[in-house]
Amino acid sequence: MSHDEHHAGESSNYLNHGKGIMSWLATLDHKRIGIMYLWTTLLFFFFGGIAALLVRYELIAPGQTIMTADQYNKAFTYHGTIMVFMVIIPLIPAALGNFFLPMQVGAKDVAFPRLNLASYYVYLAGAALATSTLFLKGVDTGWTFYTPYSIRTGTNASMVVMGAFIMGFSSIFTGLNFIVTIHKLRAPGLTWSRLPLFCWALYATSIIQVLATPVIALTTFLLFLERAMGIGIFDPALGGDPVLFQHFFWFYSHPAVYIMVLPGMGVINEIIPVFSRKPMFGYTAMALAIFGIALVSFVVWGHHMFVSNQSDLANFLFSLITMFVAVPTGVKVFGWVATMYKGRIIFKTPMLYAFAFLFVFTIGGLTGIFLATLASDVHLTHTYFVVAHFHYVMVGGTIMAFLGGMHYWWPKIWGRMYNETQAKLACLVIFLGFNVTFFPQFVLGSRGMPRRYYDYLPEFTALNRMSTYGSWMIGAGLLWVAIYMIYAIYRGEKASSNPWNAMTLEWQTTSPPHHENFTTIPKVTDGPYEFKDA
Amino acid sequence: MFFGADNAGVMKLYCEYKQMKSLLKGAWTSMFFVTEALAQTGLPPQGTEYAARFDSLYNFLIGLSAFFFAIVIIGMVVFAIKYRDRAGWKAKYIHGNTALEIFWTAIPTVLVLIVFAWGWILYKDIRTPPSDAMEIKVIGKQWLWQFQYEDGRTLVNEVYVPVGKPVKLIMTSDDVLHGFFIPNFRIKRDVVPGMHGYIWFEATKEGRHQVYCTAYCGTAHSGMLASLYALNEKDWSDFQRGKKINVEPAHIPLAFGGVAPNDSGAAPSSGGSLAEQGKKLSQTKGCVACHTEDGTTRIGPSYKGLWGSKVELADGSTVIFNEDYVTESIYEPNKKVVKGFVPSMPTFKGQVSAEEINALIAYFKSIK
Amino acid sequence: MGNKNHHAHHFESAAAEFEASKQGLWVFLVNEVLFFAGLFVAYAIYRILNPDLMHEAHKYLNWKLGATNTVVLICSSLTMALGVTAAQKGQQKKSANLILVTILLACVFLVIKYFEYMHKIHEGLLPGGLFSYHEPIHPKAPQFFSVYFVLTGLHGIHVIGGIVVLAWIYMRTLRGEFTDKYFTPVECTGLYWHFVDLVWIYLFPLLYLAS
């Protein structure tokens, strides 16, 4: 890598610093790695989305519509596995975070650039291994790989769990890199209390990634051994304990839910103050709430298992502790709304996504209370209510926040603006489509329709059909976003270095940024949201 | 010329008109579905006294959520409109308000603790069966439910219980995880191989209640359904005396308006021709979860047109689909598996009698 | 980037880079602790559910070989620590020799482990479904050996990884890449090696002395 800093001219930026395919594939620049992550995760998002549309299309009517039961089981398994492990977990941290975290802390790069590049290739290898099973018998276990079904199935569960195992390392590398970057590479004057909340969110996420991911790595590894040679840890036929798998799995996967949603909250934390022209309401409380959620996330995994035959004492404790997730989450939601109070609200696309996020995430959060409460969880768990709940949190929370963040930072990444009118309309389509798709699923669930059902009783037809129509709206909306966003990269209006008048450091350099982010390392003298507009 | 030119043109117009009409009809149906969907909100009917208490909690949660949702969304919309960006308007600098922050931390804390306690109290009820509860053993296997009574009877995919008496189901699985869920009773429990879990209930509503498998268990997961019949005193004593109770669908009202997968629900020799009895058996024994009579392929081959034909097996050999092959396949299902299917059918040895096999054979013969 | 006299361009000084590397390694070790913790939890669950299991099954492990290995690893930790101190003082030659001794001790550990494994495989004291010992032990004994093999196996993989990294550090030390100003890789490898030893120090009593 070159240390050449003589491209100080206007046109010199990270995009034209180095030419040819190798200057991308072997780059150590966090921005280029972020872009590679972005395109790769979006590619998988496309595949996962196709699987989702197929699943929804099959469910448009009871009985067989377009595929057999086995094909359907594979379709929803690929949808879940791709979306969780290959899209939502790396989407915001590894793509947007990689690009903007070093810039927001005023650093030239992450602490360990080579580790960063390695994390990308490890991710790619894991994802390739897992998705290549599509041509090798497929996999039909559901993304949760519950034993003993995942041990018995004749499909290729081994390769997929090894893929998840490998992708875990990528997640750990990213987390490790971010933790050290935030600790050691902050610009002068950037004290902890001046750190942008997006960095706080990524910091908490990274801690979860480092602490929880090794457990899923171990779990998938054990499952692999169980399938390969029957070690009898999870297999009841060999004296093992199938529920132990669920404990291990959720010990990771519950915190992983926050790996997915905390970065989304971080993005919203950036957008709302900027487009309200006001400091974040209760900055300290907002930062603490992120950590509150992260900490509690480690001791609530058992709430996925209220009907799994774990002890009633465990159920009591897990239900009680889970309730406390609601408190910091409430603090965050109220804080966002209060930030708008007496602000100067600017209706630009990122802010519209923040509105959509608030609407959808609030529903997602509140329905979480239904599932944390023991008695109501017994009725609602394993039904479409759960499916609706986590889509409201994961898609409604993370994807809305990601789309908001993508619109917010697109001018910085490419130095070009997108078409504002089209963006607003597409946002509306996605928002409506989302609610049409997933709201009926709450009703389906509370009326008793179990999840992962290929076929259903005729009484559920109307709601399922509505949900399928909604999925087409989401698909159309996302396609629209893809079209005008890609168009913007090539033909969009030139963006100024700070089109939103934001205060965080990534906006204090050119668009697109210089190869080393800043020509001189900035000095920070004030908090991240002190706009003081004239 | 004009008229001659175009029969084809007119036809094309007509086709377009028809297409348009079907599109419009589609749109209309969609509208209809939306209204119908909205009309279906809410919980399933209450089959037990517990279900009523559950619904109070559920409705409280709905109210609580609606309240907080309204605060957030009304706040968001009002602020967005009132403080919108316009000439001469400047943002007021507010960094926070400690009192307010404490307030909105404390109130939710208290509320969620109340909700937790309420949930725990109800949950304790469904975990504490009365000591005099009648016990029925339940075995889940891919993809059917078996119910074993104390008197030795075994039923498949249907279970009869008395109204007004506590019943405890002791459940385990033969293969993978299953989940036993009765929406009308608001109870559910995973059915785990190598473990014995239980649920209990006291039905108050006579009739048929749907049972689902809720833990994903493979190909026919969504076909793993059962019917729970809550019987009145007279029917129950008939059933107890081992009498094969002759209950017609009209006599056993559906507990909710859906179409039951096997709504006769009656025991086999309830009359009708031998083939009709066989058809009923194929429903009550759970065959229909995997085999159809209309030619659709599910987990196993369809019966349609099978009788007397030559069937190719997985190992390449062939066999005639006749009395012997049917009998063997019911008792030792994985010995001769039809080509293109996985050996996954459980044995019905001890559950299907010779008479019943004859009824099934008559039924298979009748499906041309 | 590999030039010993320079720090990477995004750090303001070599000291800052050293601090960052060290912190990164600590974070990595925390992550490793959690990885092994999962298995210790599995161990604890089987132990709580079957109090007599560990008591009966541990007799089939050779505690003498285990104890020897513990001593071997503790010695290797000592030589590693001395090697790091030598590197800090700029005594390259001494440092290289001590690292070499550490590598040799690690190999001794693996050789002893190899004989232990061979004996178990020969006897049929194997995990889960592979278990085929000639007389009945405890119904859950296969689970004990699953935990034993997975735990010691993963530890063994860490030892092998350690040997590879130590060999690399050894080569770099011989080439004179480290000075009393720049010894980050030696120090970090040392930390990792202590961790690997520490895992064994927990493993040994839990498995071999389980009564």
Please provide a written account of the structure.
The complex is a heterotrimer of chains A (534), B (368) and C (211). Chain A is mainly alpha-helical and 534 residues long. Chain A is built from 16 helices and no strands. Chain A has helices at residues 22-25, 30-58, 69-104, 113-132, 149-152, 157-184, 197-229, 242-276, 283-297, 312-323, 326-340, 349-372, 374-380, 384-414, 420-446, 461-491. With 368 residues, chain B is of the alpha+beta class. Chain B folds into 3 domains: 49-127, Helix Hairpins (Orthogonal Bundle); 134-267, Immunoglobulin-like (Sandwich), CATH 2.60.40; 278-366, Cytochrome c-like domain (Cytochrome Bc1 Complex, Chain D, domain 2), CATH 1.10.760.10. In chain B, 39% of the residues lie in helices and 17% in strands. Chain B has 8 helices and 12 strands. Chain B has a 5-stranded mixed sheet, with no helix packed on it. The longest helix of chain B is centred in the first third of the chain and has 34 residues, at 49-82. Residues 1-5 and 246-270 of chain B have low confidence and may be disordered. In chain C, helix 3 (63-88) packs antiparallel against helix 4 (92-123), helix 3 packs antiparallel against helix 6 (184-208) and helix 4 runs antiparallel to helix 5. With 211 residues, chain C is mainly α. The longest helix of chain C is centred in the first third of the chain and has 36 residues, at 14-49. Chain C has one domain (14-208): Four Helix Bundle (Hemerythrin (Met), subunit A), CATH 1.20.120.80. Chain C starts with 13 loop residues before the first helix and ends with a helix. Chain C is elongated, with a radius of gyration of 20 Å. Chains in contact: A-B, A-C. The A-C interface holds A 1, 3, 28, 107-115, 172, 175-177, 179-180, 183-185, 210-215, 217-219, 222, 225-226, 229-233, 235, 238-241, 244, 248, 251, 516 and C 1, 8-11, 16, 19-21, 23-24, 27-28, 30-32, 34-35, 37-39, 41-42, 45-46, 49, 127-131, 139-140, 142-143, 146-147, 149-150.
The CATH topology of chain A is Cytochrome C Oxidase, Chain A
| Unreliable residue runs of chain A | 1-9
According to DSSP, the number of beta strands of chain B is 12
Order of helices and strands of chain B: HHHHEEEEEEEEEEHHEEHH
The rough form of chain B would be described as: extended
| Strand portion of chain B | 15-25%
> What radius of gyration of chain B results from the CA coordinates?
29 Å
> What fraction of the residues of chain A are assigned to beta strands by DSSP?
under 5%
**What is the CATH topology assignment of the largest domain in chain B?**
Immunoglobulin-like
Could you give a short account of the major beta sheet of chain B? 5 strands, mixed
CATH C-level of chain A: Mainly Alpha
Of all protein chain pairs, which has the greatest interface, and how many residues does each chain bring to it? A-B, 101 and 94 residues
Cα-based radius of gyration of chain A, to the nearest Å = 23 Å
Q: How many H/I helices of chain B? A: 8
The low-pLDDT segments of chain B are: 1-5, 246-270
Report the CATH architecture of the largest domain in chain B: Sandwich
Task: Please tell me the total number of domains of chain A.
Answer: 1
Structural class of chain B: alpha+beta
